[in-house]
Amino acid sequence: MHAMDELVRRIREKRNPSVIGLDTCLAHLPPKFARDHLRELPNMEEAAQAIFDYNKALIDELYDIVPAVKVQAAYYEMYGPAGMVTFSRTLDYAREHGLTVMADVKRNDIGATAEAYAAAYLGQTTLGEGKASAFCADFATVTPYLGEDGVLPFVRACEEHGGGIFVLVKTSNPSSGQLQDMRVGGRTVYEMVGELVADWGRGLIGEEGYSAVGAVVGATYPEQGANLRARLPRTFFLVPGYGAQGAKGAELAGCFDANGGGAIVNASRSILCAWKTRPDMDFAHAAREEALRMRDDLLAGLKAAGKEGANPW
Amino acid sequence: MHAMDELVRRIREKRNPSVIGLDTCLAHLPPKFARDHLRELPNMEEAAQAIFDYNKALIDELYDIVPAVKVQAAYYEMYGPAGMVTFSRTLDYAREHGLTVMADVKRNDIGATAEAYAAAYLGQTTLGEGKASAFCADFATVTPYLGEDGVLPFVRACEEHGGGIFVLVKTSNPSSGQLQDMRVGGRTVYEMVGELVADWGRGLIGEEGYSAVGAVVGATYPEQGANLRARLPRTFFLVPGYGAQGAKGAELAGCFDANGGGAIVNASRSILCAWKTRPDMDFAHAAREEALRMRDDLLAGLKAAGKEGANPW
Questions:
Q1: How far apart, in whole angstroms, are the C-alpha atoms of residue B175 and residue B171?
Q2: Measured over all CA atoms, what is the biggest interatomic distance in chain B, rounded to whole angstroms?
Q3: Using one digit for the tens of pLDDT, what is the confidence trace for A257-298?
Q4: CA angle at residue B101 from B284 to B293, to 5 degrees?
Q5: Angle (nearest 5°) at CA A77 between A71 and A80
Q6: Contact A108/B at CB under 8 A
Q7: What pTM was computed for the model?
Q8: Residues 142-201, chain A: which have Cβ within 8 Å of B?
């Protein structure tokens, strides 16, 4: 199976171009949930178990309305090896519920080391005469600072195992321009990286028209998003920065194709912590309400931009 | 304690500006060691245990002659959560033996997520009313593509906990120039990033004259290394690419200051797999011989460049 084809079809089936970011840590748990699941001085294993329980409750509540989850490795590594068990269990639980699973690991290294990362998240690890999976994701995020030596081992793993990657092109943070907006020759660094991403993905274009090699394009830079959209017609965008980071649906239409495809928008804290702004609801119900609100906001933005008419939905 | 001061003192005490890279995976184990430590079809836990046993034997053999080890996370993530247990145990075992420990994780993310990574490797994780360490390293490696939002959370963790980072500036791989050598304004991307690294580290300069914010500068580009050395007098360099990647001692003198300080050179496979070229020795003894040969090669290169005379060694 081609991971990007599968993602596109799930977005279409659920009529929802959004992905929920499970950046879960203890500080995001509602006080009642924390009281019920944790001692006052928990150890790493107990913390990691409570985080899995929270993720599980959110997946149970959201899997029928969202096509994908993105699991941010930093929040799991913070709890040591026990956190990595929860990371792995969360990926597995989401996949069992028919969700496309993105390991947001932003890995980058060279040669044999990049191959090891690709094996860890998208492929399999050789164990003597056998093989086994370390962390089972459909997609991993990758950083391009090392050039193609750091990316092609992931591309080869996509080819072999059917997974996909999203390469950082233009990120959502305030200082992303410090390097990415610098001009090299007649274009910016992020435009140049975008073109490299299109090149790297040229051999992996699926039936839905998009390559398994996608790009991360921050929601907080709508002009740059529209610019990249025009330049990279075969590149699917993972668009973080909605919600807590400030972007709204109407600003994001430029990241989508004329037919409303080609992008998926991530929100993390606004969903994980939806209980904070909906004190009358339990956390899972609040997350569902916020996920539905976000979906409708994105679809309204696409409609307002005239991108819904030709949409296959 | 200031991690860079400590590293500089250990280099001086052992008269050895080299760091051993523990990029250990099953394919690096000698056949006899693998037969003694593994079944034909090992599981992840057994593989991870064998890798720890190998690392332990190497540390036991090398800790009196080398100042530091660099542990490459990719090779441990490849074995799933069990691999992360071995990663953590390897860091701890090396620290217990008086070695400076570098977690080669090349992490990068923004805001709260970068803080989570910094907590995972250099700081502590909040657990209710308490705190605990996830992975205990003296240094972590960091990728700069996201700009300062992705680096300053690590710098703050260094300040708070006494650790250090090495930011990728000019990497050792063949395609590193694809992005890093592009010209932005009157300089290259890697020169620009080098200047940012110096800025980010300005508040963390230790008694030995170097900032806790260092730079990764590939051994395979000696001209660029000498260029950066001249531009960044307070920035300590982690120099990978010696040995298996092709660089030799005489080519590396340019990465060092006039007094022979300011850099540490990494070798991984040439040490881990020294048994391949020394079939008459057991693997640990072969690693020691290669580590001593490397040390002498580096010191001879410094001497030939006239950088030994003023050396505090």
A1: 9
A2: 58
A3: 999 999 999 999 999 999 999 999 999 999 999 999 999 999
A4: 40
A5: 140
A6: yes
A7: 0.97
A8: 143-150, 168, 171-180, 182-185, 189, 192-193, 196
